[in-house]
């Protein structure tokens, strides 16, 4: 395995009252020289910075995670190299939709994760922003 993931868990066990299925862990030990520090990714296109035409938290999260995947791939890696995400949402009621959608992209990856509910993001239409870090190993 690329990185050593300590104390893996799934949110369906940690938060049984919520409909979540995210593979996470408590800590990640990385080996590699290429660290990809991404700015907070929002529901907009990477090429033209236009917002997607949706106020649905799941659809916005799909776009955010697609951006994260694209940036990691452009750096020469893949989603298995994702080690940390910080999730910002503007309404706690969006938590399940955001995390359920994010879980589709991190299945089997087990990054560390922090989640915050904030008053607002940089644009009023944004419901979610995710800050991500990946470490691409030397051998890849």
Strand order of the largest sheet: 3-6-4-5
Q: In sequence order, what are the helices and strands, one letter per element? A: EHEEHEHEE
The largest β sheet comes out as: 4 strands, mixed
Rg (CA only):
15 Å
* Helix content percent band: 10-25%
Shape designation: globular
N- to C-terminal separation? 12 Å
Q: Which structural class matches the secondary elements?
A: alpha+beta
Oligomer state equals single chain
The CATH topology label is: 60s Ribosomal Protein L30, Chain: A
List keywords for this structure.
single chain; 140 residues; alpha+beta; 60s Ribosomal Protein L30, Chain: A; four-stranded mixed sheet; two-stranded antiparallel sheet; 3 helices; 6 strands; globular
């Amino acid at each position: 395995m690329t990185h050593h993931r300590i104390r893996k868990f799934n949110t369906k066990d940690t938060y049984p009252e919520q409909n979540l299925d995210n593979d996470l862990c408590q800590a990640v030990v990385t080996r590699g020289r290429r660290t990809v520090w991404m700015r907070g990714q929002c529901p907009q296109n990477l090429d033209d910075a236009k917002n997607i035409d949706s106020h649905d938290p799941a659809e916005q999260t799909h776009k955010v995670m697609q951006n994260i995947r694209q940036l990691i791939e452009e750096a020469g890696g893949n989603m298995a190299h994702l080690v940390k995400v910080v999730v910002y949402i503007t309404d706690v009621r969006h938590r399940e939709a955001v995390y359920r959608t994010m879980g589709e992209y991190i299945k089997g990856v087990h990054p560390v994760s922090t989640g915050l509910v904030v008053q607002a993001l940089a644009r009023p239409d944004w419901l979610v922003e995710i800050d991500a870090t990946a470490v691409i190993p030397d051998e890849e």
